[in-house]
Design goal:
The structure holds two protein chains of two kinds.
Chain A lengths: L16 H16 L13 E2 L3 E2 L5 E5 L5 E3 L2 E2 L2 H12 L8 E6 L5 H13 L3 E5 L1 E2 L4
Parallel strand pairs in A: 1-8, 3-6, 6-7
Antiparallel strand pairs in A: 3-4, 4-5
Chain B lengths: L17 H17 L4 E5 L9 H7 L1 E5 L4 E3 L2 E3 L4 H9 L9 E6 L5 H13 L3 E4 L12
Parallel strand pairs in B: 2-5, 5-6
Antiparallel strand pairs in B: 2-3, 3-4
Helix pairs in contact in B: 3-4
């Protein structure tokens, strides 16, 4: 005699749905932070009277090996002005901020042409610095 | 007559969810840490253009930055004195054109020194203009 095996009923636990959705949301929020320049090694210079830099789409970084990066991608100084201009597009004044993260020991031969390129592209330069601690 | 309730209700915190809670807390603080706002100084620079060097030097204040020295109109000054000296030179000048300070840096000047001096110039009311050497290629006949 054949016994029929009962088909087990398996439901997806709906209690965890909220948690799963929340985790997916955070995952995509982190991915959406496209300006990932966390791999670049640089030390900010120190200064007084600093303000919050605010939001920007364009970040230029000069690392400790004097390499230039635009939004985390390495490129040559010759390409810099045109690429920044492309990013900024027709954004009005006040929304054309370009953050410059220059390594504190990088030399004028490197950072001055970068500043010039930002200026040529019509960018509003913001130097990213650390607050100077008085001793 | 009072009756004593014999059974105590024990309510446990559901331990199954504590893993999820811990994970969410970790992610929350990671996201917070990665989106800390940057601080900095904005700097308004005139758009680059080719100008006649001699004419500009006569009209404007010039700051020469060397690796170990700072010269204001040719006079050596200490880093701590830059702000006061620039402020004194710009006293009585209200037009933005008159407050332009030309900064010429040697190739080996480090960024931290440059930012310290230019910050002081701006704090003194100066408008920074960079003077860059134009690169020229000269073919030497062999």
């Amino acid at each position: 005699m054949k016994m029929k095996r009962k088909q087990p009923k398996v439901d997806i636990p709906s209690v965890a749905m909220g948690d799963i959705a929340f985790n997916l949301l955070i995952f995509f929020v982190i991915l959406a932070q496209s300006q990932d320049d966390s791999h670049i090694q640089w030390t900010p210079a120190k200064a007084d009277n600093l303000k919050g830099s605010g939001y920007t789409r364009v970040t230029v970084t000069i690392d400790k090996d004097q390499k230039v990066y635009l939004n985390g991608q390495e490129l040559s100084e010759a390409q810099l002005a045109s690429r920044i201009e492309t990013y900024l597009g027709t954004a009005p004044a006040g929304q054309r901020k370009v953050l410059l993260k220059a390594h504190s020991e990088c030399t004028a031969a490197k950072f001055e042409p970068v500043i010039e390129a930002i200026s040529q592209a019509g960018g509003e330069l913001v130097h990213i610095l650390d607050k100077k601690i008085e001793q | 007559m009072k009756f004593r309730r014999s059974t105590k209700l024990l309510v446990d915190v559901p331990a199954v969810a504590s893993g999820d809670i811990a994970f969410n807390l970790i992610v929350f603080f990671l996201v917070c840490a990665s989106t800390q706002p940057d601080t900095g100084r904005s700097q308004i620079l005139p758009k680059s253009e080719q100008t006649q060097q001699e004419k500009e030097q006569d009209e404007h204040l010039t700051v020469d930055l060397k690796r170990n020295a700072i010269l204001i109109n040719g006079d050596p000054v200490k880093v701590s004195e830059v702000k006061a000296r620039v402020r004194a030179k710009l006293a009585g000048k209200s037009r933005p054109d008159d407050r332009v300070v030309i900064v010429k840096s040697a190739d080996d000047v480090p960024y931290h020194a440059w930012i310290e001096v230019t910050s002081q110039i701006e704090d003194a009311g100066g408008i920074i203009t960079l003077q860059l050497e134009e690169e020229r290629t000269v073919d030497v006949p062999q």
